[in-house]
Every structure is written in structure tokens, then in C-alpha cells.
Amino acid sequence: MTTIRLENLVKRFGDFTALKTMDLEIRDGEFMALLGPSGCGKSTTMNMIAGMEDPSGGRILFDGRDMNGVPMGKRGVGFVFQNYAIFTHMTVRQNLAYGPKMRGMSRSEIDRRVKNIADFLQLTPLLDQKSAKLSVNILQRLAIGRSAIVEPAIFLLDEPLSNVDAAFRAVMRTELKHLQKQFKQTMVYVTHDQLEAMTMADRIAVMDHGVLQQVGTPLEVYNNPANIFVAKFIGAPGMNLIAGELAETDRGLAVDLGSWGVSPPLSDDLAAAARAAGSRAVQYGFRPEEATLGSERKGLRARVTFVERIGARTIVHAESGQAVKVVTENDVGFSIGDVVSIVPTPAAVRLFDAASTAAIRGG
Amino acid sequence: MSATETLPGAAAAAPRTIPPVDRESRRLGFRLTLPTQLLVLFIAGFPLLMQLYISLTDWSPLDGVGWWKAWESWNSFANYTDLLEDRRWWGALWRTFIIMLVCVPAEFLLALGLATLFMDDFPGKRIFYSILLMPMMVVPAVAGYMFFMLFQSGGPFNGILSALTGMDIRIAWLSDPTLALVAVMIADIWQWTPLMFLILLAGLVGVPEDQLKAATLLGANWRQRFFTIMLPRIKTIMVIALAIRVIEIFKIFDTLYIMTGGGPGVATETISVYIYKVTTQDLIWGYVAAIALVILIALSVLAVFAMKRMEAAKNGGRA
To answer: In which compartments does the protein localize (chain B) (predicted)?
Structure first.
């Protein structure tokens, strides 16, 4: 149960800057996901929290205590590795008892703790098995149990589901979230899979190229992306973005999208914000799920290039210079080559400054 | 780290039934490799049978008859019973064991220490690595001549001891029965620690880094990591390294023969040197065949034992 604060954290490897001044507070008992594509600095951040790497600048504080110079064995950090790093030459019991044993706890204390944690994680029947031949979900439980038995202040999980096949991942996600709720521990979870982050995390920190892009609850990040990167990265498929210029029409401020036509007028809040921002070149954004398709001539005009029918929903790919996707719940009667009209839900339209890529927000 | 190492449960055992097509292709494979198999059998099997045959006779090349006529001097198992009472043989065997009991542990501990040091980075690591491996590359006969010169009473070894102690030390290393044995051991340790080092280092480098980090995060200090993670995980490799060296010590010859010729007297006479002398000086080849066969069987038993240990370690816990 610990609050983690990162203050102006920087990490450089020679000339390469892996992390550029990161500030982040991870609250007590929170499940925080560090999300980003590979090479975004999320693993580096986690390794610095664990003490495997020293920061090039800035501080890491656990409950206000500066962790600089504290060796990783003394930080009270539980770490679940990508491949679980189970000691395969030992039995399940020896794995669980490893931490307490190394810390010189008494025989009876070790037995008591192993018994408790094994009961809790339903590992009791497996205690005397060699850990080399266990299945993946048991390995995950064992990895968590082995860290949890020494009662760490925080838990760090480094993409623990990336080696698991897709079908099993859903099971493992549920189990992991369930365990976190029971442990009530501060957890930091590194992943490049937005689905994992969205489903499990209390808050998500989206990172790219060593820069923290946005921190917020999964829905905040999904609904109000702070910039173009987050808008594209979150969501499957990501947000549609069309380059355009602000234009005054007789029904209010709208965006001239070139060959797409002119967008429906912006909501009052967004129009006010766009006027205040002053820049004319913008990216017009809307979620594929937040638009309707029709054939009448009142929305954005585009030509259908592909129709993906997944069963529960249909993804229509349309193009007019730039490509756009629209997700509908029902099958649609369009086929390749048809001209369609796309009408984004007014409240779901987002604008981004074309130059700075930052979101233009109303209110 | 491979996926199978990481996720052992994922690899399910395949059912062991052989479909007919497979059996057919197996038969073809057997026919195709038959000539080679016969050749190997001839190379390995024929000399062995010949050796067994001669070992049951008193045949010597001085007899003037071909070895296939050795039955003329058939003596049943007299060579083997003679061996039991041959004091020079038992002495040679004993000395070989002494050399083994000193050299193999010394080489092992030195190599393990060095390999552990080489796990970390330090300036000049690559240069030291090359220097360390050099003794292994030296032709054993050349190494023998080097040490022969180093251990002369007016040689560099005594020179260094003199410089260190400030006294004029003139120890006759190679003509003192005990010191000659020590000198031979020093030469063997010098030449073969690198091999052990190389094998153990390969093993240590293969220990997954994540496991060491996990152990550190769980509070293990360096010593605990070494004994609970690193050593158990290189168990198999340790057995291989030890087995190789034990078997090679049984065959120790070139270096030793050039340094001392087995002397003074028989003070450094090992079984290889003994066999060599019986072969070239006494010329009783029936007896030689018997000795060699006994050693072959002993070493085979040792090799099988080592392989069993390796199998067990592999099945037990991917050591």
C-alpha cells in the first residue's frame, strides 16, 4: 500500500533518450497501466521503479521516500516478469518459500506464509510438483504468489500476458484483475495491448517516444484523447482523423474537409474552443463507433473500399483521399465502390490542432 | 529464452505410435545408412575383439607369428590374474588417482571462480579472456617441454621463489619423487583449467537473467543467488566438465612423459606411462591388451554414470 511519485524522471542510454522528463503519481492501491508501443519508454520506467536501472535524472518517491540509491532487493517491490521467471529447478513450494527464506525468516513463519498464500491462490495441491511443467495460468499465479509472499509495497507487472495465446488471455485478464482486487496492492502494469489496459486498469498512462502523452481513466482516455497519438492509439480501430480547415458557415462554425465536403456544424462548446485556439488548420476526429452511414447527401462523402463483416458488427472502410472506418452494429447494404454519406455524432466530434497535434477542447 | 523454456506446459507430449508410412521410411533409412554402420562397426568393433582375443594369450611381436595365431600361446585369464598382483600397475593406478583427486577439484574450483568473475564486465575482459584460453591451445608436448625447463633447479620457477623469499632457492623439482608429482600436477592444472573455465562460463552465461533479477528482488544477496540459482542450473554442465577431465586424467601422458618420463624411478608413472613402457620396452602385448581393456571398461562405466546423471538432471528440473 504505497503511493509512487515520479518527479522529472529522465533516462538516457548514451545519446539516446529513452524517457524525457516524466511526472506521474500512482495512487495508493491503484491499478495503473503504462501503455504504449514498443520503444515508448514504459519498460524503462518500470525498471527504474524496480531499481534495475538508475535514473539519469529526477526522483522516484515511495510514500515520499526518495528511492535513489536504494538497491532493488530493499525496495519492497514485487515484480512479475514477462516470462514469469519461475525457478524451474525448484518445486512450487520452494519457489514460494524463496523470498522468506532469503530474508532469513524462521522455519515456522515460512511454512505459515507458504500455506496461506498457497490456499489463497489455490496452489495447495501443486505444492510439491516441479514447477517446470505447470500450465501458464498456474505459472502466473505462482509468479504473483512468489512476489506477494514477502508482502511488497507495490507490484510491477511487465507484460505478463504477452506469451499467452489470445484465447487464454481473456481468462488470465479476469484472474489477474480479481487477484489485484483481493490484494488491494498498488500495481503498475506495463503493456502494449490497449485491451488489457482498458479492461484492467483504474487509470492508464499512455506513452510514446519517451514522453507521457496522457493520464486518465480508461474512459477519459478513450473519450477525450489529449492528442492525435492517443486518439489513434486507443480504440480498435483507432479514431478517424481527417485534415481540414475551420470555416464559418451560415449554420455556425464547421470544418472544410476538402473532397469530403464540409462537416456538420460543430457543437457550441467545441466551436468556442476552436475560435479561442485561433489556428485554422485542424484534424477533424470521430470514433468509428460514433457515426452513422447513409446514402443521402448530408454528411461526409466517401467511396466504400472494403467491408469487413465480423458478425456482431461490420466495419466499413471508406476513402476520399484519406481512409476512414465506420463501425456499425448491423450489416449494411453497401458494397465496394458505393458512395456513402458519413454523419458523425455531433457530441463525439473531436478537434486537434494540426501543428501541435494537441486536442482543442471545449468547456 | 525460448518459448518452450518459458512455458513448459505448452509443449504437450506427442503420442508415440508409429504410422505405417513412418515405418516404411524408417526401413529405407536403415538400408541407406547400412554401409556406414558397417564401417563404424568395423572401425570400433574389430579392434575391440582383436584386443580381447590377444588379451587372453601370451602373444608378443617377438614370437614371430602373426597376431591371428596368438591362440598358440593361449593362457586363459592369466593376464588378468597377473594384473591383480602387479604392484607396478597398482602403483601407477594409485598415482593416477592422486593426480585426479588433486587436479580435477583444483581445476574445477579455479575455473568456477574465474567463470564467475567473467560474468561481470570489467576493463580488458576480452584480452584476459584470450590470455586465459591460451594454455589450452598449446600442444601438450610443447607444454611439457616448457614446464620441463621452468622446473629446472636453476630455472625460472626457482628464480621467482628466490626473488620472493630473498633466499637462493635451488629445489630439484623434477628429481624429487614428491615434488616431481607436484610439478606434473601444476602443469596439468595450468593447461586444463581453461577448458573447464570455458565450459562452466558457457553454462553460467546460459542462466536466464530474469531468474537472477527475480531472486534479487526477493531479497537474495550475491552468495544466495550463486548457490540457489546459478549452481543448480549448471549442474548438468558441471557433470559434463568433471567427466571430461576425469576421463582425460586417466589418459594423461604427453606433458608428463616429456617432463619426467615417469620418473624419478616410477614416482610419476601413471597408467598411460606404464602401458607405454610395457608396450615399447617389455613388448608383452597380450598383457598390454588386458590392461587397456580393463581401463576401457572402467572409463565406460564412468561415462555411462555421468550420462545417467545428466539424464536425471534433465528430466528432474531442467538443470
So the answer is: Cell membrane
